[in-house]
Amino acid sequence: MAVGLDKIQPEKITEKEHLVVEGMDISGHWNRMFEPRVLTDYTIDNLEKVAALPGGESLMWCYGCAKCTAVCPVDIVGDYSPRKIHRRTQSGADLFSSPDLWLCTTCMNCLRVCPKEVNMIQIMPAVREQAVLEGNVPPELQKAFEDTAKHGNPLGQPQRKRADWIKKAGAAVPIMKDLKRPVDILWYVGSYPSYHPRGIDAASAAARIFNALGIDFGVLGIEEKDDGDSQRLAGEKGLFEMLAEENIATFGKYEFNRMVVTGPHEFNAFKNEYPKLGADFKVLHYTRFLVEHLDKLKPRLKKPINPSAGSGRSLKVTFHDPCYLGRHNGEYDAPRELLRAIPGIELVEMGRCRENGYCCGGGGGGMWLDSHTKDHTTMRLSERRVREAAEYGADVLAVCCPFEVSRFEDAAKSTGNDKLMVRDILELLDESMKG
Ligand code: SF4
Ligand code: SF4
Q1: Which of 74, 244, 325, 398 could form a disulfide with 264 if both were Cys (CB 3.0 to 4.6 A apart)?
Q2: Ligand 2 pocket mutation pick from 68, 77, 86, 104 by most atoms within 8 angstroms of CB
Q3: Has this prediction a pTM greater than 0.85?
Q4: 104: helix, strand or coil
Q5: Is it true that 156-294 and 300-433 share their CATH fold?
């Protein structure tokens, strides 16, 4: 049955059984079109249910201009956008139990262009929170929630192993508890850089870079827990608040001037969400922090990174803007400044970049919803992005979000673009420093 047809109220449909106009017989349903369209053919109860939630109000404001449909990354691989969500809900569909509820990655591209400020970054978490309370959550996401609650990270790895990566980092990584003194920089490593093999590669590269630059830094080691922001956006606000309170208490135990984070999601959490819960510290994403040190970093970037040594050809690198660094927090230049500082690299921009950057599919809980997304779209967003990078002739897809390396590497394999290398900017800098 088409969306909402079960909500049609027949008594509200005007239809004359016998009608002849200027000799033409338009009896029955043929004369319906001569009547003003009755929007209340449908109940709007479900739209009102969304709008009644704190944060859900703006879904009501949509006036159907469709600007959002043109930029929504999910619509490119499926049938989706705030306009479509508004119309379906207005026509009677129940967003609370619809697969649509879990497709939005909160990438913010729609809000950027929406004249009515329909805010999916507030609507989606609000509706998802209700769905979570009712136990209506895709199993893979539920598992990530449970792993986070139990182990302090969504990968389900033991908390006591959170600092194990340090042993093989190839550089000193002081732990605050052992250091017993104030530091200039508290480095919040993050869950994926602590546990995921490709995240560990980036974390180890960061450790070597920080040491080479003589940064006075420390990490929290096994005291660190996931920031929880993506879980919040996926509807687990309670879990987010619990993690935030624990992390804020841990941060408060130590003296530091500024915090540097590896990932854009943590950056967003600490910059925009934790202060609402009482946190008060200055935080930087690693790209901005390293740009501050570019005068010391640049002379160390000696080794040109070429596809084949001696070929003289530049390495074509394209950069994927993370939604939570770019659109959400306005940082587009620092990653590019770092890439341009590396010898042997030619930076090429993809069509969808900067403010209109395409989403990797990992935000807003998408990191843990790949199977669900796959079932309701033609391809994963990461696969669409990898194809775009390959279409632009890139040798390397450069990233600066720990969610992205594994997502894009998997997507490169599944789309047959195995030659495309996916590298964190930290890895590229580290490699160039080895010259
Ligand atoms: S851009 Fe805003 S107002 Fe226009 S259709 Fe999309 S949600 Fe509605
Ligand atoms: S936030 Fe992004 S994924 Fe969600 S509806 Fe808007 S454009 Fe689409």
Answers
A1: 325
A2: 104
A3: yes
A4: coil
A5: yes
Tens-digit pLDDT profile for the chain (435 aa)?
Answer: 444 445 556 666 677 888 888 888 988 888 776 666 665 567 889 999 999 999 999 999 999 999 999 999 999 999 999 999 999 999 889 999 999 999 999 999 999 999 999 999 999 999 999 999 999 999 999 999 999 999 999 999 999 999 999 999 999 999 999 999 999 999 999 999 999 999 999 999 999 999 999 999 999 999 999 999 999 999 999 999 999 999 999 999 999 999 999 999 999 999 999 999 999 999 999 999 999 999 999 999 999 887 665 667 889 999 999 999 999 999 999 999 999 999 999 999 999 999 999 999 999 999 999 999 999 999 999 999 999 999 999 999 999 999 999 999 999 999 999 999 999 999 999 999 987
How open is the CA angle 366-367-371, to the nearest 5 degrees?
75
- Tokens matching residue 238: 């309670």
- 3-class secondary structure, 24: strand
Eight-state DSSP code of residue 46: H
Q: List the domain boundaries for the chain.
A: 1-32, 44-136, 156-294, 300-433
Nearest ligand to the C-alpha atom of residue 81 = 2
The CATH code belonging to domain 300-433 is 3.40.50.10700
Pocket of ligand 2 (CB under 6 A): 71-74, 81-82, 104-110, 120
Half-sphere exposure of 346 (CA within 13 A, CB side): 12
Structure tokens at 62: 């949509």
